[in-house]
Design brief:
50% strand, mainly beta, single chain
Length: 122
């Protein structure tokens, strides 16, 4: 089973940018479709973005479309989430998730990262 290790995140002012990374250990990441999710205090986890196994397809939540970009480098076993024009409402713990089965649009994942906090201040 693949292990996902996240990095990036932190504190940024509104309008700023951050990049999150999700590295896969133990398996070739090219076998996995990958998604990013976030969860703010007191709220349910929500979908942010997802990318297909070779990166040819991507999908975004309406709330981040045009501001966030998901990409992947399978040679580095890494998926990135570039976040720009950040807003206070983007503040949350962000998680990457991966699955080696199912289509891109599936909501099921069988591996999760440890999470990383993103805080956007006014």
């Amino acid at each position: 089973q693949v292990q996902l290790v996240q990095s990036g995140g932190g504190l940024v002012q509104a309008g700023g940018s951050l990049r999150l990374s999700c590295v896969a250990l133990g398996r070739a990441f090219s076998e996995y479709r990958v998604g990013w999710f976030r969860q703010a205090p007191g709220k349910e986890r929500e979908f942010v973005a997802r990318i297909s196994r070779i990166g040819s397809l991507t999908d975004y939540a309406d709330s981040v479309k045009g501001r966030f970009t998901i990409t992947r480098d399978n040679a580095k076993n890494t998926v990135y989430l570039q976040m720009s024009s950040l807003k206070p409402e983007d503040t949350a713990a962000y998680y990457c998730a991966a699955a080696d089965y199912g289509p891109l649009w599936s909501t099921e994942y069988n591996a999760w990262g440890q999470g990383t906090q993103v805080t956007v201040s006014l």
